[in-house]
Amino acid sequence: MLLWVSDIPLELAPLKATARNVAGKLTILDSRYLENSIMITGKRITRSLASATNEVASRAGKNSKRNKPVASKNQDSMKVDHERIQKAVREILIAVGEDPDREGLLETPARVARMYAEIFSGLHKDPRVHLKRVFTENYDEIVLVRDIEFHSMCEHHLLPFSGKAHVGYLPNGKVVGLSKLARVVDEVARRPQVQERMTETIANMVEQELGARGVVVLIESSHSCMSMRGIRKAGASCTTSAMRGVFRENLSSRAEILGLILNQNR
Fold first, then answer.
1. Which of 147, 144, 146, 198 is closest to 171 using CA atoms?
2. If you average pLDDT over every residue of the chain, what do you get?
3. What is the reported pLDDT for 79?
4. Is 223 a catalytic residue?
5. Range 113-120 average pLDDT
6. 130, 187, 195, 209: which one is catalytic?
7. Residue of 124, 200, 225, 256 with catalytic role
8. Which of 62, 131, 192, 224 would disulfide-bridge 209, Cβ 3.0–4.6 Å?
């Protein structure tokens, strides 16, 4: 859009300057947008300027929306002090007798910082949000999601432990999307953890948010802090469970849910 300003009376000089300013903004915004010509003269200038200004604002708004950052794991990464982690990792390398300036280690502090931002991203999230969207259903039998893979970090040695979580509940008129249970497990796991607390945390959230008549969370995992250091017992595994409601109070209900989890898991 080429904006021509000519034959403008003296008293409209300020509008003339505004018109040129608008033309400049249009040119800066997007040269491909300058396709048509508008002749502004005399009384038509006010209306033309208003129209041009609106087009500028509209175009700017579209550009703003297009360039708006998308919510992603990068936003969680911004909440982590990367520079501080990099300095700490460099000091650790020096402390153990390494040369942080040799080729293979030059980028290691930055890599570790990005890794920590990812594996500890659960610190900056509230897993409960995944349990807010529920559906009313006339279903009162067991809902069980088995074999939810997870990876977490032992807070005692900052070494990983990995395994599978099984989450089941007895609805009380409300059910939640199955993938939401997996999301809860994932976000609770992505923080410095101990398996016992992780198990209890997931069970409490499901019970409180869904108002379920019964909840069971059973986690099976292997801990590298036990297999690669200390006692060094590779192959050892840890099982923890948390029972709520009827699964805690009623032995037959507990046996039923554990049978669904463990018998099919062997």
1. 144
2. 82
3. 85
4. yes
5. 97
6. 195
7. 225
8. 131
Is the C-alpha dihedral spanning 132, 133, 139, 143 positive or negative? negative
The CATH T-level fold of domain 127-265 is: GTP Cyclohydrolase I, domain 2 (3.30.1130)
Q: Where are the domains of the chain?
A: 2-67, 73-119, 127-265
Establish whether 208 is a catalytic residue. Answer: no
Q: Of 55, 82, 98, 157, which residue is the catalytic one? A: 157
Q: pLDDT band at 88, cuts 50/70/90? A: very high
Is pTM beyond 0.90 here? no
Residue 263: per-residue pLDDT: 81
132, pLDDT greater than 60: yes
pLDDT bin (cut points 50, 70, 90) of residue 148 is very high
Q: Residues 73-119: name the CATH superfamily.
A: GTP cyclohydrolase I, N-terminal domain (1.10.286.10)
Is 155 an active-site residue?
Answer: yes
Q: What is the pLDDT of residue 11?
A: 45
| CA distance linking residue 116 with residue 74, whole number of Å | 12
DSSP string, 149-213: EEEEEETTTTEEEEEEEEEEEE-SSEEE-HHHHHHHHHHHHSSEE-HHHHHHHHHHHHHHHH--S
Per the annotation, the verdict on 225 as an active-site residue is yes
Active site (annotated) includes residue 238 = no
Catalytic residue among 156, 196, 208, 264: 156
